[in-house]
From TrEMBL, chain A:
GO molecular function: NADH dehydrogenase (ubiquinone) activity
Main localization of the protein described in the UniProt heading: mitochondrion
Stated role: Core subunit of the mitochondrial membrane respiratory chain NADH dehydrogenase (Complex I) which catalyzes electron transfer from NADH through the respiratory chain, using ubiquinone as an electron acceptor. Essential for the catalytic activity and assembly of complex I.
Protein location: Mitochondrion membrane
Cellular component annotations (GO), alphabetically ordered: mitochondrial membrane
High-level lineage: Eukaryota, Metazoa, Chordata, Craniata, Vertebrata
Pfam families: Oxidored_q3 (PF00499)
Record InterPro entries: ComplexI_Subunit6, NADH_UbQ/plastoQ_OxRdtase_su6, Nuo/plastoQ_OxRdtase_6_NuoJ
Annotated source species: Equus caballus (Horse)
Protein family (similarity comment): Belongs to the complex I subunit 6 family.
Transmembrane region(s): 6-22, 27-45, 51-71, 83-108, 149-169
Name assigned to this protein: NADH-ubiquinone oxidoreductase chain 6
Encoding gene (name): ND6
Top-level lineage group: Eukaryota
Keyword annotations from UniProtKB, A to Z: Electron transport, Membrane, Mitochondrion, NAD, Respiratory chain, Translocase, Transmembrane, Transmembrane helix, Transport, Ubiquinone
Tagged with keyword Hydrolase: no
UniProtKB/TrEMBL annotation, chain B:
Protein's UniProt name: NADH-ubiquinone oxidoreductase chain 2
Self-association and partners: Core subunit of respiratory chain NADH dehydrogenase (Complex I) which is composed of 45 different subunits. Interacts with TMEM242.
Catalysed reactions, as listed in the record: a ubiquinone + NADH + 5 H(+)(in) = a ubiquinol + NAD(+) + 4 H(+)(out)
Species, as recorded: Equus caballus
Record key words, sorted: Electron transport, Membrane, Mitochondrion, Mitochondrion inner membrane, NAD, Respiratory chain, Translocase, Transmembrane, Transmembrane helix, Transport, Ubiquinone
EC code(s) of this entry: 7.1.1.2
Subcellular location: Mitochondrion inner membrane
Amino acid sequence: MMTYIVFILSVIFVVSFVGFSSKPSPIYGGLVLIVSGGVGCGIIMNFGGSFLGLMVFLIYLGGMLVVFGYTTAMATEQYPEVWVSNTTVMGVFLLGLLMEVMLVLYVLKSEEVGVVFEFSGVGDWAIYDTGDSGVFSEEIMGVAALYSYGAWVVIVTGWSLFVGVLVILEVTRGD
Amino acid sequence: MNPLIFTTILMTVLLGTMIVMMSSHWLMIWIGFEMNLLAIIPILMKKYNPRTMEASTKYFLTQATASMLLMMAIIINLMHSGQWTITKVFNPTASIIMTSALAMKLGLTPFHFWVPEVTQGISLTSGLILLTWQKLAPMSILYQISPSINLNILLTMAVLSILVGGWGGLNQTQLRKIMAYSSIAHMGWMTAVLAYNPTLTMLNMLIYIMMTLTMFMLFIHSSSTTTLSLSHTWNKTPLTTTLILITLLSMGGLPPLSGFMPKWMIIQELTKNNSIILPTLMAIMALLNLYFYMRLTYSTSLTMFPSTNNMKMKWQFETKRITFLPPLIVMSSLLLPLTPMLSILD
């Protein structure tokens, strides 16, 4: 099972995305987002990115999702929608689940899946440690490169976040 | 809105488009599109009423969907070519998805439904920015991937856009919706020639922006958003009735005005490539556009439109100073003799 751990984690990832895309109340969406964040962290860690996985837990789940949870708790309604309360939400969730199950069965049965890209069996996603990544870990070097060669990206992202705050304040300010 | 915040947000809209046009990395292009979208939302919502909020929400939803499709096309391109540089997109699937995403951003058929509704819900100045500046970024990406676009899809979308832009505008009396349908039709003309000679796409974009800018500024000057209100400009500033006449006929593509230049060049380029039926159809469908421009000129400059006697006087607010209106009017009507200068573009 451990060789196919990435595939299993990716299935759980997709199922939790279906869970919040079927639009229950935001507080339940946040719950499923925690699961998907944790599973996504697992996927990244399997590819050797321990730093980035930790970033997901700390900043995304521990920073942004906590703030989201507090604001949703302030703005919640009396009877929030859950997956079983509304036929539409349940229907969409089951539809997404069904499509994922069909895709998984298709992948497991046939040797090759050529939908958009070549995917030759579940073994394609198993991680083989070839051992030639050298002394440095690739993903730490990537993060370091962001702050040296990728300075423009940092400036653009920083400015986008700043303007994002300005835009949100402007939109919610009203007249 | 606080002037400093407004300037910052407007500059971010400009910065977003500049990043899209200047980047060589697909991810930066996507970031530029998102920055542009994020910053234009408060500009669309400048006046705070339910109509503008609804229009901004519709704009945000369609553009965000288009950005998601663009990201998917970028990732498929990455999987098949292994690099992030802007070149033509070699994989057909990625190319089709990217063309659909950019068509959604431009407002081409069958993704045109948001253009009239969003343009109608916002103020005239915001509509101006929406219909001119926001078209620059997607068109520049289409220009860069033009060698690899699937011709069937592109030409189908172009011809349908010209049809929808002409047909849809026929029943409109609201000026902003008329301009929106005019924008859909002009985008159709621009994308029709994209696969054959992308320089003409840029020429058409340039002249379209000048003409749309002029039209919107004339509308802003006379503070009119409906045909009825526009028909009272003879009372307020009689000169603008003549200018509206000239600019509208130029938008309809009549020689000897500048609006004829892109249509002429496009038809010539298409016939050089042995397609006769297509430019004939396009030229015939441009007549639908011309019809509703003529109706506007008829009610504005050629007749005194019937209205009750106490509505004939337009209330004189203080005169708006419109920058660059005279040069714009001159450029959007008198550029046709400069057509031989296009030979420098090669």
